[in-house]
Amino acid sequence: MPRATFGLQVKTRALRLLEALLTFALDNLNQGNQDIQFKWSEEDSPHPKLLIDTKLRFLEQLTQQDKYESKLSKAQIKEALKRMEDYLGILEDHRLKDRGSEDWRFTLTLWSKKLAKNLEMFAELWESRQPEKSKQQFASGNWQYETKRHLINLFTDSQVIPNPFGDVGCITDTSRFFDREELLRQIFEELSKGVNLSLVGESQIGKSSILHRICNSSNLHETKYVYLNLQWVDNEDEFYEALCEEALKIPLCRGFQLTRALSGKRYVLCLDEIEKMTWDGFTKRVRSQLRGLADGGNAPLKLVIASRTPLAYLFPDAPELDSPLAGICRSLDVKPFSESVVRAFIHQRLQGTGVIFSEEEIRELFVHSQGHPARLQFAASNLYMRYVQLSE
Question: Which fold has domain 180-333?
């Protein structure tokens, strides 16, 4: 059995994993994520707790999407988790079988719900556990300086040149939205013909941003465009409340009363996080009513539904109907950016910054991200910060 190590490399990997986990858990758009499930507890106490339930491969993917080069391997992630447990004492392992298991379920006891505070306290605790000789080596080197510099770069907004990359989550500012012209053209063309749509794409590829763009670019007369995110909706009662009172701005109702309330009206309902309807609080009835309200040329609703999985596979409980929603929705794939779009995006964002990426660097950014917008933003942000630091 290899001997456990607690040096700078291990500390850096553990700190990076903690940063990735907290960044993920603090992003509201990740609520209900089925790959990395999380839950906060004792949030108002001096030491809030974060429960994580996932698999090693999803943690590996998480580090592949962060702002640093390459990714952590499964072995490095396991080592980082074990050091949080046996060295720092901030991790409680809830697995029954921990040898060779892909599944991980654990609780992190933290110092705050603020990312910067946790990273700072993590680094201080790690250093305090070091032998006296190691502490002196750290003090004589540049580790403390680099740690402080890292925190300052991440959590202060007083930089002379703002980082043009690193947008996180749904982009609601239309000036930050980029490309997707052809996809938007197809969407509005189909909506003008009365077609319901299903936008399918992997996580963080820009589906929510596209839904917001649709609502902000509506061009059909006498039609109201509304957006509904099911992220905070846990059951059918809450769904109808959110649909009627928040999205459609009508009194709460359902069934025939809802059909009557929408008679003669025209809405395009952009429905986000449809995966929540697979939860126990929902039945086929709510999807059947949505189908009834959206099916047909004179239907009061037209749907634009965003999901990571095609609707027919997401709701396999009604194969005779080809899913109550899949049967009336045309599927459109939300794909990664092409290399030419990546190049145009980078050139546009760098305008006015004084920083220029080489063609080789842009090519590497495309290869690393494969055109995935979130991964591209993280990688480009990291490269940009290196240029800024070299200029200081």
Answer: Rossmann fold (3.40.50)
